[in-house]
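ok so heres the complex, three chains, lmk if somethin looks off
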Amino acid sequence: MFQTTPTILEQFIIVLGYWDRLLSGFVVTLWLYGWAILIGFFLGLFLAILRQYGGWFISRVSTSYIEFMRGTPLLVQIFIIYYVPLALNFPVGSWNFKTNFLLAGKNITIVLLNQQILAGIITLGLNSAAYQAEYFRGAFMSISTGQLLAAQSLGMSRFSGIRNIILPQALRRVIPAWSNEAAYLPKYTVIVYFIGVLEIFAQAHNIVAITFISLPTYLIVAVIFLITISIISKLLDIVHSRTRIPGL
Amino acid sequence: MLRIHNLYKSYDDLEVLKGISFELARQEVKVIFGPSGSGKSTLLRCINMLDPPDEGEIFLSGQNITASGINLNSVRTKIGMVFQHFNLFSHLKAVDNVSIGLRKVKKLPKEVAQKKALEALDRVRLKDWANHYPAQLSGGQQQRVGIARALAMEPEVILFDEPTSALDPELIGEVLQTMLDLAKSGTTMIVVTHEMGFARAVASEMIYIGDGVVEERGTPQHFFTSPNSDRVKRFLNQLNTLYGTHEQLLQTGDEENYK
Amino acid sequence: MAVPNLFDIFFYIIFQGLPHTLLLTFLGLLGGFVLGIVLALMRVYGSKELQWIASGYEKVMRGIPILVLIYILLFGVPGLFFFIDLRLLPLFSVILALALRSAAYQSQIFRSAILSVNPGQLEAALSIGMSKLQAFRNIIFPQALRLAIPSWSNEYAVVIKDSSFAYGVGIVEITKASYDLGVGFHQLRIITLFVGAFFYLALTYPVTRIIGERQSKKLKNLGMGGG
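and the predicted structre for the whole thing:
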């Protein structure tokens, strides 16, 4: 394709010429990240409450789930979840939901939901839930048990005490540790590459296949992740400073 | 042997030492006392240059240790320190706590260091506890190990920074007794403390420091019969009320129940 | 094709997958340990410039996915390390990626451990004439190591799970072994994958649980971290 090998600068420019693919991949990455955080948050909170305040059996079940998800690699988990419907012989057609738009002269199509993406979202959500549950657990444990007793002594039910006294505090206390998880979660969305989702790493792979320019491509992807994570971190820092409990 | 000349020290805006001077001869025991925050601990940390003074000089056996270019590590082998919170090395047994300085700093061979360490522990009557870890020892025992650690280095002077202030009352006696024995055997000591019974027994001079300056100095006799300033008088009365009974700890002897 | 039974699966994974997983984990942790301590020292005792460099390094290594790092090294390294046998290149890239990444996290662990050692210990060490270096080597570092053990066992678990990304460059470790074994039947694949998951669990759970708890108890007995 080229008469001579392009210089480093030229290589970067060529790769950036495929910005539409990179953008499409990046959108999918963020899309996955958003769902994963959301599912992870609610499921994780639920699991943490079950573990901390549930009965003996429920607490055990919750703990087992958390330990399993935290003790096994994300890659194994996504393979398992991806193959479950296939193993159970569910009719999985090749369905998808996509979005289409025109940007700077290029027609960009982004698939937002299909079999693989669904599996990816579920896995990332289930996995993140386990890790978030640990952070919530830390927050719960840092609130003295006396507070729940005090709430109950006022006549609140256990449930009401958890909802009105423990949760508001726990949610604010957990922000520093939670921000850690939230800011770095985009990294893990790369895992869906292995089941064929076109997120940013997969797109990079394609670009490398087309242009044979490898190092600059992957470096660009790395930079994109760094910038994204920095921005998310900063945003969460702002949230943290706005919601801090004075004196803590 | 030790000469402190015009020490000044500030932390940020707060001036803690405002021109402290005094001298110490061999085998002398000086007791420094005064209200908290008056700079007494800071003074000790200046003397062994853990926290050098902003102005002023310190002469150890004629050598100006505040001058630049001085090897502070070797200077510190000549000045021992016993801390209020013991600061024993928690990952080392008692005997190793005492011997590590001999091995690593004075580069003595293991057997020699071990022997000297056990001797030092014997002097503080803890030889049987040599192989215990600090967490397994009572506060009083830990402090005595701290004293042994300083002793083993054979320093020219030992600085005591409120050695009994962090101890439970029943453990104070054993440490005071140890210090008393040291003083009687000729160890040169500077002791920052509230223990007036100790001062009365062995101090060659007492120095009252208030607000960063030496307000009054003199023999124990002087202080306990007729101090000059009213502040010192009131302070001594307070001390007597709080710590007066400790004198009996010294007289009735030392064979208390060790843990 | 004969369907393997459970024993076959176990043995296949043990002999085909386990060695590479252990190799990757061990070397990755080791590299991360050495570099991590250097970085921690730079951050705790270093000049402003050194601190900035170490801190920057940590930020970068924590901000990129390990898979991306592996590929960057895979394509970037041949230029730098021409003496590496090309067949070993994927393995080398993964080990290097694991080590570089782990170093950033271990640096944090050691830095925090060093700072938790009671400052009085340093004072006491200096007061008997030790230089700062001696004080660090003999007094602070041994204690910091002990304090770091619970967090470090957690990092071990992380690295062992990250080693699964070696699948992406064709190395046969536990994940790839489990995946490949289930070829042909989806139901079989689920089973082999679960067995693979079990292996990871067996390697991580006991360690993090036991070491974590025992260390916390031991530390309480020694009274370390306090005066």
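quick notes: The CA atoms of residues 4 and 10 of chain A lie 11 Å apart. thats all i got rn
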